Amino acid sequence: MIIKYGLICEDIAQRSFLENFLEKQNDVFFQLDQEFYNRFRVAGNNNKQVIKSIPQIGYQLVEKYHLDFLFVGLDYDDRNQSDFDKELEQLYLKIDKNVRAKSVVFFPVQAIEHWLLYLKFKIDDPKSTKNVSYENINRKNVKREIFGEGKNSDYKTKIIISKLTSFDFIDWLKTRSTSFQRFNSDFNNAIQKLKSF
Question: Which pLDDT band holds residue 44 (cuts at 50, 70, 90)?
């Protein structure tokens, strides 16, 4: 089965993580619509702009681009972690109701780099069974741990993420990050519904 999808997200790190995640899916091939991505690529790559764009993209996804699926990527940033489910549901409600069932929001606490830090931990110490939480570590420190000092090119960011996602990480990461577990659950539910049509 081939699923053509649209993506709106904050940055190349989110896009790269998602693409590597989708490559791990065995029974479905996912194809990004580059024109849709370019059209809705957020100027300034920030959370507020992605949220502002969400209501506009549903109709376009179906009517203009004829896509099967939508991914929305946002970092949770400094929001209160106890409000995670409520915040996520509010984002889903912003998606056009005709597209909502074919949409998944990935909303890492605090940032996509926190999911990547878990993966780095696993790669650096593969035999460790410690269940360490990284979701309270300052975002800047986590980004520095993953990408080093300074701003990386898109190419270098993709290479780093590709290395960190090179193993079958999905089942392991679900046991470490509740925000990833929620994303993976929402993803599997939405794909099952899509397959049943």
Answer: low
